[in-house]
Amino acid sequence: MSLRPIHLLGSPVLREPSAPVPEVTDEVRRLVDDMFETMDGAEGVGLAANQIGMAIRVAVVDAEGSRIAMINPTIAEASGKAREEEGCLSIPDVYGEVTRPERIILEATDQHGAPYRLEAAGLLARAIQHEIDHLDGILFLDRLSPMKRRLLVAKYRREHKEGDSLLREVARPSGRTP
Ligand SMILES: [Zn+2]
Model's pTM, two decimal places? Predict the structure, then answer.
């Protein structure tokens, strides 16, 4: 397993719609392992493959006791509405309140190639939707009001100057509980 650098806001791959995965190969499994390790190292609750530079439909989530790999994920059903603060490993130190469906049913394939269905609510449902957005080239900033988005992007630009690296190196996790 290895840690991968995370692409930051401004990196074009974050805006690329990701391609479906035709088959869950050993290469895909290795990618999933690396993504779990990178997500843990960055202390995130989710990570999409394009955040580490690969525009394919693979994402991982670890929230509310569920640690899942999602290959070719789709939202089969969605209901309710919830507004909570979100952040993103690709947009450090920026947070905004995003309204999303509160409950969802996820359909995806796991890292062993088995299809599954998962009912999720709360932070788990939010993280899953955030990661699927990434696979479609959508960032949580896009779901804010235009004014809020302008404010947050301006704040980010003050702290991350043009010409700064668009890659963020992730340190090995120090001792996170499993
Ligand atoms: Zn994100």
Answer: 0.94
